[in-house]
Amino acid sequence: MQRAEVGVFGGSGFYSLLEGAREVKVDTPYGEPSDAVMLGEIAGRKVGFLPRHGRTHRLPPHRINYRANAWALHSLGVEWVFGPCAAGSLQPNVRPGEFVICDQFVDRTWGRMDTFADGPIVTHVSAADPYCPTLRPLAVETARRLDIPVHDRGTVVVIQGPRFSTRAESRWFRGQGWEVINMTNYPESILARELQMCYVNISLITDYDVGVEGDPGVEPVTHTAVLRVMQQNNERLRRLLLAMIERLPRKRECSCATALAHARVE
């Protein structure tokens, strides 16, 4: 049987971690996922990797089939999901090259299919604490063991994309005290919660959103700059993911596994 217990959404740099990887095409009730799932093994754990943008990065953030992606991993038996992503900083103390293990999100997207709860059973999943309480501290502790600069919490504001923010928007987000800006974390994280999978966001800071206000030495974000920092930090991200998978508990004891227990109106 094609099975996995750990799932990873991310970029192509993760392929080299999988031992004896094989490609599996997964059909879902929600259409096609971004790509086939690569199945392999890390530290004795079966892992499924799915590039959220497709392996050639052909899908912009607003065109990703988030429901199909989440369902594909769930249908393979995945219980733990890692969601590393490129992200911008909204605060001077959160610097490019650092990691942020977010504890909150703010959704500023529109028109995305962001729930499996289309009826006839009405379902209201709690999002008060949207990320797994087991995976978050594991990510922080592991990053510190590896001497990776990491922030143990932060709020990510998820924008629609594919354009970057205006200066006015960035000032607004910064003024709210939010630390991170990204285009893909919503609805990926909450769909995992609806499927009772554990999910952790690992934001790799690639840039300051539109530059630090009032600092002429910091340029507004460009796609080229984002890719440059991602390439420079890919190895650290791969080391972090490998070490986290090696340290995963064998049994889930968090509330993610029972997220639907009191969420349904029947």
From TrEMBL:
Binding-site positions, substrate: M183, D207, Y208, D209
InterPro entries (alphabetical): MTAP, Nucleoside_phosphorylase_d, Nucleoside_phosphorylase_sf
Signal peptide range: none
Binding-site residues, phosphate: S12, R52, H53, T184
Pathway entry: Purine metabolism; purine nucleoside salvage
Enzyme class: transferase
Site (Important for substrate specificity): residue numbering on this chain: S165, H223
Coiled coil: none
CDD domains (UniProt xref): MTAP_SsMTAPII_like_MTIP (cd09010)
Chain ranges of the Nucleoside phosphorylase domain: 6-246
Entry's Gene Ontology BP terms: L-methionine salvage from methylthioadenosine; purine ribonucleoside salvage
EC identifiers of the protein: 2.4.2.1
Superkingdom of the organism of origin: Bacteria
Keywords: Glycosyltransferase, Purine salvage, Transferase
One of the Pfam families matching this protein, by short name: PNP_UDP_1
Gene Ontology annotations for the cellular component aspect, listed alphabetically: cytosol
Catalysed transformations (reactions): a purine D-ribonucleoside + phosphate = a purine nucleobase + alpha-D-ribose 1-phosphate
GO molecular function per UniProt: S-methyl-5-thioadenosine phosphorylase activity
Function in brief: Purine nucleoside phosphorylase involved in purine salvage.
Other facts noted in the record for this chain: Although this enzyme belongs to the family of MTA phosphorylases based on sequence homology, it lacks several conserved amino acids in the substrate binding pocket that confer specificity towards MTA.
Protein family membership: Belongs to the PNP/MTAP phosphorylase family. MTAP subfamily.
Subunit structure: Homohexamer. Dimer of a homotrimer.
UniProt-recorded name of the protein: Purine nucleoside phosphorylase
